[in-house]
Amino acid sequence: MNVEKLGRLEDRLETYLGRFAGCFTRSDTRAHLTTYVRGQLSDLDAKSVEPIALQAGMPVRTLQEFIAQHRWDEDALRRQMMHIVRDEHNNANTVGVIDETSDVKKGDKTPGVQRQWCGKVGKKENCIVTVHLAAATEDFHCMIDGELFLPESWNEDRPRCAAAGIPDDMVYRPKWQIALELLDRSATEGITFPWLTADEGYGGKPGFLEGLANRDQKFVLEVPRTFSVWEKTPEVTEQPYREGGRGRGRKTPRVKSGESSPRSVETVFWFGEPMKAKRWKQYRVKDGEKGPITWEAKRVRVTLKGSDDLPGMPLWLVVARNVLDDELKFFVSNASEFTSMAMLLQVAFQRWRVERCFEDQKQEVGLDCYEGRRYLGLKRHLIITAISYLFLSQTCEQERKTKSELHDSTTPSRARRDRSQLVTSA
């Protein structure tokens, strides 16, 4: 957003940021929030603390202290942002999206930095990883929350954590557990999702699926080809077994001897008789720059191989194939038997929204520009970046509505686009 356009939106931005005034006890500290957000929304090439402060004509040290040291309630700031999303953008069509992003960092002082897989460059690199929760509904999407992934190497070096200001109660946990924490945190503030989706990095973890089911959360999750399921639910026994009546018995409960073994979803697709008997049906997933993007899909009922290696919840296994290049995607869902395939695909293909959030936040508001060495500064940066992006999303939505109203006033109603159904039969 260039300076001229930001100037035209100054009144709207002031009103928006005024909704966060209660998170600060001092007016001068609150003014620093405005400075930081204005810097993120500006046309600066780099949106780290130094260029933002210099553009605002304030000492760099002052803005650094605002982010990493000053006393103000960043948790209240996040709650207020969540309440805005809850009250103005959460509805029966909202899909929650879980994903992670990574940013290359130099040195070893940035909280959570280490050599690990970095999706931004597609290889292992010295970087930090953060896990995020986004919300998408119709043409609107925004980021709701995010948290640092703390690697095991950091968790095992608590003096290093202390030097970076990482709280004692913040420990290593898998990314899918962080995702569940983000969901719980949003639910505490009244944000619940009719549906949730995520990529195979999360869908491939049985513990994540079980955690969602325990929260009564409906989901459509992409899974890797190797994801294990049963085509027919096997029997489980509690009876111990000792071969020849001697030795240590097998663990119980366990799958009964003679029952079929779980198979990968790819094997089920190619060789499972129920799946082979299903016919492909085409669906228009969305409109691309070169025309409609069409996939064909089919589904069967399967049983999850749980985190305890026992049969778990019943699931839909959905296989989708791109009509143009035969790309295959595998999804699982705990939806009811009455849920249409169009609805499952509509949820499954919402994941591009969080990728767009990451792209916009890095290009437009400086998500990847944090250069500090304190966890509190990183946490606050994530929260303020989400607030800046929410303002952008709301502004874009308002402009779309204005253009749509002008268009609708001159366009017959039957020609207007129905945005409630994103996926339709081709």
**What integer is the average pLDDT?**
90
Basic shape: globular
**Gyration radius, to the nearest Å?**
24 Å
**Model regions low in confidence, pLDDT < 50 over at least 5 residues:** 412-421
Strand content: 15-25%
- Sheet of most strands: 13 strands, mixed
**SSE-based structural type:** alpha+beta
Task: Count the beta strands.
Answer: 15
End-to-end separation:
38 Å
How many DSSP H or I helices?
16
Please estimate the helix content: 25-40%
Describe this structure in words.
The protein is an alpha+beta fold. It has a domain of 107 residues. It is 39% helix and 23% strand. The chain contains 16 helices and 15 strands. The strands form 2 sheets. Strands 1, 2, 3, 4, 5, 6, 7, 10, 11, 12, 13, 14 and 15 form a 13-stranded mixed β-sheet that branches. Strands 8-9 form a two-stranded antiparallel sheet. The radius of gyration is 24 Å and the shape is globular. It starts with a helix and ends with a strand.
Describe what is shown at a glance.
This protein is an alpha+beta fold. 39% of the residues lie in helices and 23% in strands.
Key structural traits:
426 residues, 15 strands, two-stranded antiparallel ribbon, 13-stranded mixed β-sheet, alpha+beta, globular
